[in-house]
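Before relying on records like the one below, remember that each one covers exactly one chain. Contacts with other chains, cofactors or solvent are not represented anywhere in the record.
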Amino acid sequence: MNPLEIFCSLKEVGFSYDKEISKKIQLDYSEDLKKILETNSISFENQNSFIVIERKNLPFAFFEDINEFQSQIKLTDFEKPIIINSFNNTNPIYFSDSYDIQIIDKLPNENYLISNAKTFLESIGYFKSKYDENEVNFEFIDDFSLSNRTITFSSISEKKRLKFIFTPTGVIEMNTSVNYSTKFDEFKSLMLESKQYPVFLKKSLIKHLLNSSLNPYVSFFEKIDQIILEAKLDFNVYLHELSIDKIKAEYKDYKQQYFSSQNEILNKLTNQIIAVPISISATVFAISRLEGKGLPLFIVSFGLLCYIGYVTFLIKFFVRDILALHSQSSHDYKNLYDQSFFRENEDELTYFKQVKSSIDNRLSDLYLGLKCFTVIMWVSSGLILVYVLSHFIDFSNYNKDLFFFVIPLILFIYLFSEILFKEKLNDTNE
């Protein structure tokens, strides 16, 4: 009989189990039962009218319920099929890696109670194998104590120490909906992939688990994806001779330099913005005083046009500066993006994207403000010139003449602004 059939026979007869003290199964005596046990070489004792079987003599690892399984399971138990008699107060479950037979109540696919337990127990042996007290260089495990049941990881440079604590039997509480065996397999494979990977895995492990509110051993499995991801990232940084923190610090300074350049343009523009309304107001005041005087009006108007022309000339340089800043910003970001490390780890570009976006938004606002200021300045000046012309032409009786002057003026200002701002910010992207 196979182990499952033996268990079903015992279940059919009916048995009691002393979970707390003796760890023995007790059944009513019968010749049929005795024959089954003897046929399958299962040691038992006759006690009065009962047959008593020690749990260790069964051809399967028997546990009354999940609590006993979690507190008593040992790695050697996985050498036999495993039976939990009461799984969540329901039917028994049977687990076997080597028997292809009908099971009583198979664990649902998303439940990894047993495989996770095996993974945990194997991890203890794995960490023990990585401890070498005679190692003088790098030590992945700084101390493994079977008597104290501790696994110690320490970082001398950062003066940090982390301890995993385990018990003689049983397992830690793990999320049974997650298969940690595949994750731990990946962890172990990385340890072998390169001589440098253990360094980065240990660093990441200490960083993620040191301040955890949970049992560090529990946190290790719950955060194993993060530990592996950061170790891979650090390893890639090492391969590409990059330092993310250093690049971020340099990019922060780079951002400040761009903002300083923008502020310089803004300060110069502010001086012109302040001066233009004053100049226009002074011109209007002078014109009102020179009403009917042709030559003085002409001289004042000519002076206004020269001043507006000079300001426009300066604005042309401001526009070039803004476009140059945007082009340089795009070029620098593209050089960063083209690094193979960032192509493989695009999440690490998030900070730099934010910096680039803030620079672009500020440049875009500055560009738009400059364009609006130029149009307003020319419209105001144009209206003043029309006002001057009204001293020589009676527009009230000649609407056609007013139309003749105003419409071309509007078209001229529009075409002039399009020429001055013909190169858009988007055109300067790499």
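The longest strand covers residues 150-155.
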